């Protein structure tokens, strides 16, 4: 039982973690971009970088979630091959 | 640059701090999640050899994408321009591909748990001790350097006192490494990679827009003190320090491209450890090869911003023209961030820098604790204890390593030149190591004595060249001294190893199976393909070929 738990725990998916962080960043930046002060936009050479950067990050996050959904981590059903005996 | 009220102080607001804090919450969260997967020492030190290749591949380059890389390479970009790309295209990619295609089968196939352990199997105890001790010492010192650089940046950007940021950063790294071991370090490196790209790519785009697109950059750099030679990668005289074009190309290809970079990428356990953590032979070989693809594009978000900063920021342009001013090349990225990014994106950019500095230190510590525990403590001090003992030891070693790193950082804050010297010196250390490895892997006659004699004499040569160039006896500006130092170390190591081998007794052939090319059956080097290794795009050699072709093409486009 303990062994099975270990395998499940080992399968936490870093892709979801990355997508969550970048997704939150994307959301925050997009909102900042929408309510942006035109003076701030001028600072970035006229590009509303918060808005566009935010949207790009949201898209990236969506892509990563899709990847994690389409190719979930497979927990091997057979016993993990035993590591080579340590010397 | 240590002033409390720096002109580089960024105008960070609450939203920027929230973005920074969010990142560190995730970093610690990953440490906690990774902890649940640690049940024995192999889990802790090598992630249980279970990670997929794209994860280890990104961690492979991320571990190297630290403070020195990001700040240093953008500074080089501002100072030298396009020739800086050689640090990536000549100075990293061929060696990474060589590691994946040629050397990884020996590392992964022999199931050693560290690079020094390979040394032990091939050459016996003296060479192992030399390698393990010098590696461990170098890693804690470099961890201290990384820690100090991080604290300096936080001080300049946000005004925190140096000691406070040293302690906070050390505590964060310490918590996730002691909790989750190498897995926590690797997962955080992957996260860090994406955060760095998310931070630097927008900066580059805004910068390029500001300077008037690519053509605008070309025009401005041509008109700047650097002139148009800063727009093409070759022959890179200013970078190599040689005035002759021919010597410069030779120096870059052999000095940087061969001796320095092969030494670093193929024998440095910080890097190789990431590949050793992958789930099978094919994934281990693909690790550095997959890493080479993002690696070849990193210059565009590191060097280009540096070049832009040198022509759009008045302070930096003045520094480049006159050699004096309130800022220097190392500030290139910070100036660009200060001038171009609005709050929000600014917070993300600061996060990216902090992430990169911290990951550098974490990589040093996670390889330090492995070598300390497996190679020094288990092998020589406290032998034959149950595995749980070494797992606990590894956690404590991490604590001690962090404390030493804090101490090193404290020393560094008093003697910043000392740290420059240390860094340069360590850049020489890998050249003799590479010589010994490559000779040992391909020449079965090489003996155990030759192993340690070559290492010690090669390292001594590197130190000697370093001292001579510091005292002005050898006078080469730019990177010339490192090229010569590493080259001399390599040659001395090879020559002495050959001479010593010829007069001492070699190991028996049966002891060298899996360690020396000619004695290892082909099947031993090529594990059977396992589930998840299918598809042409998962063939290491083919992938390496594509990577090499792309790199050559990039050299032509930007040559």
Can you describe this structure?
Chain A: Keywords: Membrane, Transmembrane, Transmembrane helix. The complex is a heterodimer of chains A (87) and B (559). Chain A has 87 residues and is mostly helical. Chain A has helices at 2-10, 14-34, 38-43, 49-70. Chain A has a domain at 12-70. The longest helix of chain A has 22 residues, at 49-70. Chain A is elongated. With 559 residues, chain B is an all-alpha fold. In chain B, 76% of the residues lie in helices and 0% in strands. Chain B has 23 helices and no strands. In chain B, helix 8 (125-158) runs antiparallel to helix 19 (416-442) and helix 9 (162-211) packs across helix 14. Chain B is globular and about 65 Å long. Chain A binds chain B through residues 6, 9-10, 12, 14, 17-18, 20-22, 24-25, 28-29, 32-33, 36, 40-41, 43-47, 49-50, 52-53, 57, 60, 74, 80, 83-84, 86, and chain B through 15, 18-19, 22-23, 26, 29-30, 33-34, 36-37, 39, 42, 48-50, 55, 111, 113, 187, 190-191, 194-195, 198, 202, 205-206, 209-210, 339-345, 348, 531-532.
Amount of helix of chain B: over 70%
The number of helical elements of chain A comes to 4
Count, helices of chain B = 23
User: Which class do the helix and strand fractions of chain A yield?
Assistant: mainly alpha
* Overall outline of chain A: elongated
How many β-strands of chain A, per DSSP?
0
Please tell me the overall pLDDT of chain B.
Answer: 83
Quick gist of this model?
Chain B: This is SSS family solute:Na+ symporter. The complex is a heterodimer of chains A (87) and B (559). Chain A is an all-alpha fold and 87 residues long.
Which helices and strands appear, and what pairs or packs with what?
The complex is a heterodimer of chains A (87) and B (559).
Chain A: H1 2-10, H2 14-34, H3 38-43, H4 49-70
Helix pairs in contact in A: 2-4
Chain B: H1 14-35, H2 41-46, H3 53-62, H4 67-80, H5 86-89, H6 93-109, H7 115-123, H8 125-158, H9 162-211, H10 213-223, H11 237-240, H12 245-267, H13 269-276, H14 281-312, H15 314-322, H16 332-340, H17 345-381, H18 387-414, H19 416-442, H20 448-470, H21 480-503, H22 522-525, H23 540-558
Helix pairs in contact in B: 1-9, 1-17, 3-9, 3-13, 3-14, 4-14, 6-12, 6-14, 6-23, 7-8, 8-9, 8-17, 8-18, 8-19, 8-20, 9-10, 9-14, 9-17, 9-18, 12-19, 12-21, 14-15, 14-16, 14-23, 17-18, 18-19, 19-20, 19-21, 20-21
Keywords (chain A): Membrane, Transmembrane, Transmembrane helix
Transmembrane segments (chain A): 12-35, 47-70
Transmembrane segments (chain B): 14-34, 54-75, 87-108, 129-154, 160-179, 191-209, 246-267, 288-313, 346-372, 393-415, 421-443, 450-469, 481-503, 541-558
